[in-house]
Structure formats: C-alpha cells, structure tokens
Design brief:
mainly alpha; about 200 residues; elongated; 10 helices
Length: about 200
Amino acid sequence: MTSKKRARVPRGQAQEKILQAADELFYQEGIHAVSVDAIVERAGINKMSVYRQFSSKTDLVIAYLKKKQAAFWQEWEESMARHPDRPREQLVQFFADLADRASSQEFRGCCFLNVSVEFPDPAHPVRELVCAHQKQIFDAFLERTVALGADNPRELAYTLILLMKGTHADSQTYGTDNAAIQLLPSIVEKLLAAAVGADAGADSK
C-alpha cells in the first residue's frame, strides 16, 4: 500500500502552514518532543516543502520564536495604547492583559522560557535569540519605569520582569485558574505605588 502523495504548495503558503503547525506543536509539546514528520503531518504538506523553507530544525525553531516575538510586541503595544502617556496605567494594563491570557486553559507559559530550558547552551543560536528578546523586554520595562518616575527604575523593571516570569511559571505549576493570577493587576498597582510614592504617582498621570 502506497502513502498518499501530497501536492506541492506554493512557497509563501507553505511557509505559513509550516510555521502555524510548528507554533501549535512546539508550544504545546516542546521543541525536542516534536519531529519534523509531526510538523509535516500537522501542516498537511510534503516533507521536502519543509526543507525548501528551512535548512534545519534549528532554523525552523528560530523562525517560530521570531513569530512569537512579533506576537509579544503586538500584545505589548496594544496594552500601552490603551493609556497613552500614562506609564502607571500602561503597566497595570499589561499585567491585567497577561492575567487574562494566563487564565486560559490553552496557556502553556512563556514559550521563550520553555525553549531556554530545552537549549541550555548559552552559545546556541536559539538560546542567544531568547536572551536578546529578554533584554529587549527589560529595556521596554525600564523605559516605562523611568517615565513613571520610580526612585529606582532599574530595580522596578527587574521586579516587574520577575512578576511576569513568575506568572508564567505559576500558571503551569498550580493551574491557569489559581488565585495568584487574578490578583496580579492589584499586586502591580501596589508595587508601582510603593516605588514612586503618592505624589510622584499623581504627577505621572
């Protein structure tokens, strides 16, 4: 019995199908647990289409992470746009939106942290991309904490990042419906108030 031969898909369409399949499988099951064959099956294309688009699985993982980067920054910008020029409200909004996403049963934590566990070598291209992304996130938080007028904006930015990462981990440890996730916006509000003081906080609005 011969297997059904899949028709060749146009280049642009093939890449979109491959990345969508990789996104779903890598995020839900992990990088090393997912084979190229599994991606081929999920995408509904032939195997050569994958290798025409990506020379190796590493290249595919990097493309997947770049797609996730774009999604993260879109979410960030959407949160910031809700409260133009109001850094305190922008940060609270970001964490409120994060709490909403982390409450979904499909949420599997931060894909970048998940990937970094699977690629422990700091010199690996995948790990380098993850580290560069985390540095960009720190810079974005620092820009907001400086605008907020925090007494120690770098310390506050690091604290917010730890809260974000803790939310990712908490959702996977205790479930996406745990109380800590729902308390996240309130926790951030109190943290920001303590970091700038009542007068400075009022000036930042």
